[in-house]
Write a structure and sequence with these properties.
- By secondary structure, the chain is α/β, with parallel strands linked by helices.
- Helix 1 packs across helix 12 and helix 7 packs across helix 11.
- The protein is globular and about 60 Å long.
- Strand 5, helix 4 and strand 6 form a beta-alpha-beta unit.
- It has two domains: about 200 residues, 3-Layer(aba) Sandwich (Rossmann fold), CATH 3.40.50.720; about 120 residues, no CATH class.
- The strands form two sheets. The protein has an eight-stranded mixed beta sheet, with helices on both faces. A five-stranded mixed beta sheet has the order 9-10-8-11-12, with helices on one face.
- The chain starts with a strand and ends in a 9-residue tail after the last strand.
- The structure holds nicotinamide-adenine-dinucleotide (NAD).
- InterPro entries: NAD(P)-bd_dom_sf.
- It comes from Halalkalicoccus paucihalophilus.
- This is (S)-8-amino-7-oxononanoate synthase BioU.
Amino acid sequence: MDDVNFAVLGTGGIGRRTLEVSQHKESLTPVVACDRHGVAVDHEGLDVDELLTATEGNIASEPQSEGETRTDGGAAAVKQTGRDEGVATSRQAEPTETPIDDVIAESEHVDAVLIALPNFEHDFIPRVADRFVEADYEGVLIDVLKRSRVIDMLNERTDSFEESGITFICGAGATPGFLTGAAALAAQSFIEIEEVEIWWGVGLKSGYEDNRGTVREDIAHLPDYDIKTARELSDEEIEEVIQKHDGVLEFHDMEHADDVLLERADICDAEDVTVGGILDVCSDEKPTTTTVRVTGRTFDGETGTNTFQLDDVTSMEANVNGPALGYLKSGVRRNRAGEYGVFGPAELMPGF
Ligand SMILES: NC(=O)c1ccc[n+]([C@@H]2O[C@H](COP(=O)([O-])OP(=O)(O)OC[C@H]3O[C@@H](n4cnc5c(N)ncnc54)[C@H](O)[C@@H]3O)[C@@H](O)[C@H]2O)c1
């Protein structure tokens, strides 16, 4: 009853670590994983060590040639060594041109699908969800996407998720995700929230190669860029942006879905939430401590700020994948209890 078979869509920087972290969770068994080029299936449980070794230094997330139809949400270059690409190099995998369809074909064997795909087209993940609906999938879909506007696109699909028996958990990484949940918990002291400030720090020197997809998406939050211009940057241009900032990128007023996710959980208005942070690709040390500050008024008339901090030694990968798998498990419990539709991380915390 407690055991969960799950699939990972996208074994890039995040998806690979999802598989690795799941090794430490007894009840979670990864049975399917795919990237742009391959799909690995084992109903008894994938050999994660073999899959990680095969894809080490070989994440299939290359840019597409001009004129090619983008079906992948605009995957960015990460890195590749050797002849084969990504998951297809694993002895458990087959090369494929239809990885998402291949995962859907296995969906009766999975309780949950973690979507770790790029998000360079806002409707990419909602469209992937539609394909699971069309295939009559019943179970959990969970993503770690960042952008606020995608949550509305998922909301619009609530009825079809409910009819299908799908529990969709959205924005369930670190921010949004872990920190959104922390803000929802910190807000419980107050009867009225004035402000939620989320400020993150990521040091990514040794993880930079593996996480270039995420870095590219983050660049889209800088004032002179958007998702389209960031998607079209060459690797060299990305490096130029990074060098121009001496390897340290600072972000303010990011479009992170923490705002709409806190609003939909009735914690506060979206406009009272700000998200910013600092990314240092030249050091593993966090350039700033990740902090959530929730300011509000208590029932007995005090105004205070509850603060939640992450230890500087916890990595981005730990803070995305631990919570994502925790939310996945919460989603499966809801799904098995017959609760379908769209849920954000704040709704899985105490609330009214
Ligand atoms: N919420 C958070 O805190 C948080 C933190 C970090 C990253 N993220 C998000 O996680 C997502 C993944 O980031 P990443 O760094 O792992 O990216 P990445 O580029 O390293 O990996 C993406 C993976 O998706 C695969 N892929 C792309 N198109 C595909 C398709 N059509 N079919 C099958 N597979 C396909 C690629 O081959 C690759 O394996 C991004 O959207 C990023 O914004 C969220």
